[in-house]
Amino acid sequence: MAYFLELLISGALTGLMYSLVALGFVLIYKSAGVPNLAQGALVMTAGYAVWLVMAWGLNVWIAIPIAAAIMFGFGLVVERLLLRRMVGQPVIMVVMLTLGLEILLRGLVPGVLGSTPKPIDLGIDFAPIIIGDVFINRTSLYGGIVALLLVGASLLFFRTRLGTKLRAVSDDHVSSWAVGISVERAIGISWGLAGIAAVVAGALWGSSQGVDWTLSTLLFPAVAVVILGGVDSVPGVVVGGILVGVLGTVIPGYLDSVAGGSTRDVVTSLIILLTIMVRPFGIFGREDIERI
Amino acid sequence: MFYRLSGTYHTSYEADRKLWKIPTDRWLVVAVLLLALLAPLYVSPLYLGSYVLPWVIWSAAALSLTLLMGLAGQLHFGFAAVMAIGAYASIHLVRFGVPFELALLLSGLIAAVIGAVFGGAALRVKGLYLVMATLAMQYLVDWVVVNVPAISGGAHATLRTPAVSFLFMPVESLAARYWLALGWAVLLTVFFMNVKRTSFGRALVAIRDKDFAAAVIGVDPFKTKLMAFFTSSFMGGVTGAILAFCFYRAVTPEQFGFNVSIQLVAMVLVGGLGSVIGSWLGAGFVLLAPIFLTNLVSGLAAAGWVPVSQNFLSHLPLMIYGAMIIGFLLLEPLGLAKIYDNIRKYFLVWPFRHARS
C-alpha cells in the first residue's frame, strides 16, 4: 500500500512537471493554432540558458528572470522568422518546421555549449520528505506546486486585457483583425510566453536530472498530456498531466519487472492512441467543426 | 540544344498519355538506368556500399511513404516502425525456412496488415491527431520489438540476417545486394508513376484534396484511406526487408527508431510531396548532404582553417539536417522536385526564355 501511495504521489508530481512543458504547447496552439513540436527543445534551450546565466556567477533567482527574458525574446524571434511565413500552409509543413527547429536546436545548443550534463542548483534539499512510509522527492514537490501556480497564473492572464486579445485571436484570426487586434503580435507574444514557461520547466527538470539534450525528449509525455487534456485547454494541462504522470508511474511500477522495462513509453503511447480513438479533442478540448 | 519540344507533336491520345512525352526525357531515363545498373563496375566498393546502396534503398522507402503522404495526404510519423516490422518479419521467416522471395512478399503483407490496423484506428482523425497517433504507433512497435526476445533476440541484441539467394542468385556480394535493391527501387518507381494514372491513384488524390468532396463523388474515404495505408505499408515492409538483407545485414531496433521516421518524412518533404523524382533526390539529399558537409567542415577544422571543437563537429550533422528541413520549408516548400522542374523548363526553351509557357 505504501508502495502504491508513493507511486501515486510521485506520479502525480511528475505529471504536474510534465504539464509545465505541455503548458507552452497549449499557449501556442491556443492562440496560433500551431502544434509546436519544438517545445521539448525549447525547454532544453531554456535549461541551457539558465545554466549559462548562472555560469556568469549570478544567483539562481536572478538568473531565472534573465533567462526568462532571453527565452521570451527567442520565442518572438522564432515566431517572426519562421512561423509567420507558414501562415495558411498545410499542417504537415508547420509540424515539420517545428520538428526541424527541434532537430536544429538539439544539435546547435549542445554543440556550442557542451553536451555533458550541466547542473542547475536551485538550492532544493535532495533529502526526501518522509510522511509515514512514503518518500516524496522535494524537487518534484516544488515542481508540482510551481506548475499549479503557473497554470493558475495563465488562467488569470487570459482574463487580462492582453489575455482577452489572445483568446480573441484563438477564436478567429480574421475577426480579430477586423476589430483592430494585431494578430501577428498576439501570436508572437504567445510564443514568448511559451518561452517563459519553458524556462520554468527547464530550470526544474534541469535541477532534477541535469541539463543536456535528453530534456528535449520531454516532448513525448508532454504531447500525451496535451492530447489527453485537450490541445487548446489550459486547465486540461493539469488534469492531463496528473493522469499521464500517475498512469505512467503506477503501471510501470508494477509491470516493469514483468514485461522487461520502459513500459512508461507504452503507457504514454496507449494514452495518446486511446484518446485519439475515443475522444480526439481531449477531455477539455473544444471539438473542431470542419467546414466543407 | 537537344533538349526541346520542337518537332515533337502528339497526334494521338496515346502519345500524349506517355510517361515520358519528350524523346530526350526517355533517353535520359535510359541513360540514368544504364548508369545505375553498371554502377558496381565503375564505383569503388566503398562508395557503392556506403553511399549509393543506402541512397537506392532509402529512395524506395521515400517512395513508399510519399504514396501515403503525397498522394493520399495522410501523415505518417511512424514509418520506420513499418519498415522494422518488415525487416524483422523477413529475417524470422527466412530462418523458419521460407524461401527468400516468398519471405519478402510475406513480410510486406505482415507490415501491411499491421500498418493498416494502426491506420484504420487513426482514420477518424486527420492532420495533427494523425501525426500523434502514428507517433504512438512508432513507440509501441519499438517497444514490442525491443522487449519481446523472440523478435529482437533480447534488448540490445543484433540479429544477423541469414545467407539467402534471390532467384538462384546468392545475395552475398556487394554487387548482388545492390542490384536487388536497385531492382526493387525501380519496380516501386514504375509502380508509382503508373498508379497515379489508375482509378485507385485518382481516388487517393481526391481524398487528399478534400475527403468530404471525394465522398460526394462516390469515393469511399474509409476504404480508400485504408487501402492507402495498406499499399504504402506493404511497400515499406518489403523495403525494410531489403534494407535489412542488402544493407544492414545485422539488425538492431535502434536502426528503426523515431529519428528514422522523421528522416523519412524529411526526405519526402525535401524532395517534394508526391513526386517520383523528388523521392530519389530527397532521399539522396537528406542522406548525403549532412555527411558531405560534415566531412567538409571536419576537413577544414583538421587543416586548422575553422576553429571548432570536437563536440561541435559531432553535433554538426544534426544542425545541418535541421537547418536543411527549415530552409526547404521556408524557401522552396515544393522541394527538390520543383527545383528540378524549373531547371528542366529553363532548358526546354533555352535560349528563348520569353517563350516559356
TrEMBL record, chain A:
Q: Which InterPro entries match?
A: ABC_transp_permease (IPR001851), BCAA_transport_permease (IPR052157)
The superkingdom of the source organism is: Bacteria
The membrane topology of this protein is:
Multi-pass membrane protein
The UniProt transmembrane annotation reads 7-29, 49-78, 90-109, 141-158, 186-207, 213-231, 238-255, 267-285
In this record, what's one Pfam family?
Answer: BPD_transp_2
Location in the cell: Cell membrane
Record keywords: Ion transport included?
no
Keywords recorded for this protein, A-Z: Amino-acid transport, Cell membrane, Membrane, Transmembrane, Transmembrane helix, Transport
Q: Which family does it belong to?
A: Belongs to the binding-protein-dependent transport system permease family. LivHM subfamily.
Write the protein's name.
Branched-chain amino acid ABC transporter permease
Originating species? Paracoccus benzoatiresistens
Automatic annotation (TrEMBL), chain B:
Record's keyword annotation contains Repeat: no
Give one Pfam family: BPD_transp_2
For the keyword Protease, the answer is no
Membrane topology value: Multi-pass membrane protein
Compartment(s): Cell membrane
Q: Determine the domain of life of the protein's source.
A: Bacteria
Assign the protein's first listed, main location to one coarse class.
membrane
Q: Where are the transmembrane segments?
A: 27-45, 51-70, 77-96, 102-121, 128-146, 176-195, 226-250, 256-278, 285-306, 318-337
The record's annotation in InterPro entries points to: ABC_transp_permease, LivM-like
Keywords, A to Z? Answer: Cell membrane, Membrane, Transmembrane, Transmembrane helix
> What protein am I looking at?
Branched-chain amino acid ABC transporter permease
